[in-house]
Design brief:
Blueprint lengths: L1 H18 L19 H24 L10 E2 L13 H24 L4 H26 L2 E2 H19 L1 H6 E7 L3 H8 L21 E8 L4 H7 L6 E10 L14 E10 L1 H9 L5 H16 E2 L4 E10 L10
Helix pairs in contact: 2-3, 3-4, 3-5, 4-5, 9-10
Length: 326
């Protein structure tokens, strides 16, 4: 009986859409004329981006750290509550590889004129190669982490899927929300002692106590929700979030809150959808450029304080987490 009721509801919904007049739509703005492909400039720009990233890793992770006596194979755990960074670094590895790969696709395809699929696969492979190289170097300074390598690979696969399946990209995104933690601010200000092996004020990537990772589902990507909620559906995402607190940076003695992991279901502000809506009908070139920048930026970043937790689960570390890792 319930199948018949569901069929009647779906039939009525379809009939309603067929009989109601179409709302008046604004005339679409004229598309921007295609740019002349510049493959050499695109490849050079991407190479420069990789060089800048490699230079930053040296300053942030290796410059003040002594190398080991020999190469170390191992791992710093997966997502356990007693592992390095409480597992948040695995989310960070996946996010960083995905973001770099997607940036490379934009550069190679949008500017260089390479075919979309070719550009995405090349870029995903380059990002995976770079972060594998980082893991190999970690083996001489910290340890080669198989779980970090797995996170990198997941990020490269995510980038390739999101770049090549438009419908998937319309429905999902993987973002990080960042607000600097108190401990990182202390490190930058020089008011907190460094752990053995040294520390770097440039090492913002390991401020896991300020990072929250969100797997976001775009409500506006579903027509039924979009028809019901209207424009507002473009601004709100349903999100699954994860973070760890008081693992990294290592807390000072006056911090009494124990290290803990948080997993939650909630809502997130979709800044990408907001700026797309705000700028989509603006004819000026400046508005188009800003829309392009904000669309790409908020594809991988969530607005600070831009999520609300509806249901949350937490667990605290039972032992002191390990200090090493990169």
């Amino acid at each position: 009986m319930w199948i018949v009721c569901l069929a009647l509801v779906l039939l009525a919904w379809w009939r309603k859409g067929r009989t109601e007049p179409e709302p008046e739509r604004k005339p679409p703005r004229e598309p921007e004329p295609p740019r002349e492909p510049r493959p050499a400039a695109a490849v050079t720009t991407l190479a420069a981006a990789y060089a800048i990233f490699v230079a930053w890793t040296f300053v942030a992770w290796y410059r003040k750290h002594y190398p080991l006596d020999k190469f170390k194979w191992g791992g710093d755990g997966w997502m356990g509550e007693n592992t390095y960074a409480g597992g948040a670094d695995k989310c960070g590895h996946a996010w960083a590889t995905m973001s770099l790969a997607r940036l490379g696709t934009v550069i190679l395809h949008g500017w260089g004129g390479f075919a979309k699929r070719k550009a995405s696969l090349i870029s995903a492979g380059l990002a995976e190669t770079l972060f594998t190289g980082v893991e190999v170097k970690d083996g001489f300074y910290y340890e080669f982490s198989f779980s970090d390598f797995t996170g990198n690979s997941i990020g490269a696969v995510m980038a390739a899927l999101l770049d090549n399946f438009p419908r998937l990209n319309e429905l999902f995104s993987y973002r990080v929300q960042y607000e600097p933690s108190e401990m990182y601010e202390r490190k930058v200000a020089g008011t907190s002692p460094c752990p053995p092996g040294g520390c770097s004020r440039w090492n913002i990537a390991e401020d896991y106590s300020g990072e929250t990772y969100l797997a976001a589902f775009h409500l506006g990507g579903v027509r039924a929700i979009r028809d019901r909620l209207g424009t507002a559906s473009r601004f709100v995402d349903f999100a699954v979030g994860f973070d760890s607190r008081n693992y990294k940076p290592h807390p000072d003695a006056d911090v009494t809150e124990p290290p803990h992991q948080d997993l939650f279901l909630g809502l997130a502000f979709n800044a990408q959808g907001f700026f797309d809506w705000l700028l989509e009908d603006r004819p000026s070139k400046a508005a188009r450029r800003v829309q392009t920048i904000t669309h790409g930026l908020f594809e991988v970043f969530n607005a600070p304080y831009g999520s609300v937790r509806l249901v949350e689960w937490s667990r605290a570390a039972k032992v002191k987490p390990p200090a090493q890792g990169a």
